[in-house]
Amino acid sequence: MASQIGAKTNGISPNNFQIEIPIHTKSVEKESNIDYFQRAQWLRAAMLGANDGLITVASLMIGVGAIKEDISVMLLAGFAGLVAGACSMAIGEFVSVYTQYDIEIAQIKRERELANNNNDEDESSEREKLPNPFQAALASALAFSVGALMPLLAAAFIKNHKIRMGVVAAVVSFALLVFGSVGALIGKTPVMRSCVRVLIGGWMAMAITFGFTKLIGTTGL
Questions:
Q1: Which of 1, 86, 98, 214 could form a disulfide bond with 66, CB atoms 3.0-4.6 angstroms apart?
Q2: Does residue 100 register a pLDDT over 90?
Q3: H helical segments located in the chain
Q4: Cβ contact 150:175 at 8 Å
Q5: Which sequence spans correspond to the domains of the chain?
């Protein structure tokens, strides 16, 4: 009887008794708020530039090394490839992304005219989501230079021609695996598939360049 009175005075009943369990969702919310589409814009430019710099300069050096054993010739060819490739990547990426930017701006204006929407705030927020040509060009040029420096540094201090060629190929292969893994982890894509794809592509580029340069150099074409 006393327990029933106590329950009534305290306003507590078995049916109303609830246990609240705190759930920490900050990490989940933070993960879900990541815009992978925006991340993919600069990631694509950076990874494309790094892989191109690595493969292009390494293939160029290996191609020259197929017919010339002089280290200075290999390094000069690699450095020329670095400068020319970085400029080409920056200009090409800028033109490409700026074209995409113009197309999307025109599409936004058409959609606003059809919807009779004159809200400037909506347009400014939509512009912020558009790709940045200057950012993409800078990322491509810097990434190309970083990738191109690897085979240059690998070959710079090795005098023996055969060892130098082998070291360049090994360093490039390792760097391709690293680039493939980093790109996959940042973009949340399968790591193994990305690594195999970039590694096989790099090997094919170096092998084809070596083979054709060797053929032309030995036949005197």
A1: 214
A2: no
A3: 2-10, 26-32, 36-65, 71-115, 120-128, 133-156, 161-187, 191-219
A4: yes
A5: 37-219
